[in-house]
Amino acid sequence: MELLLKAILREMDTFLEKWTDYMEQAGYLEHTTAKKEDCILSLRGLIEPIQILLANKSSLRFPSILQNNRDIADFLVQTGSKHQARGLKAELFFGCFKTLLHAVEDIMCRRSERMRMPCESIFKSRRKKTNGLSNLGCFNSQL
Predict the structure, then answer these.
(1) What is the span of the domain harbouring residue 63?
(2) More confident position, 13 or 57
């Protein structure tokens, strides 16, 4: 998992390109004032707390994250509050977050193809490991 997270961060240019594409397709670009640095911070704000959990050998299951590491939740709340302060609604914030997840998924799929592994198998494997709890509609869905 750590290697995958590092790989995602190394592909920052691809992430930024994909996220911009998804934001444009969803009609969100015209409503955002985010700069490149904001987008980079958004991705880091999700990945770096997970890296810390892995380094501490903590569980990545949702209940464990809530009990032991609030960085991810705090980051999302702070980001959502910034959106709200700029007059943007929660729907737009969550839509933007979903486009971020799609951009990350694209990087993961691209990496799996390089490993000659079908992209879908990454997500099926992950759902099996979490007893299906990860299937929240974030992955493998269209905008």
Answers:
(1) 2-129
(2) 13
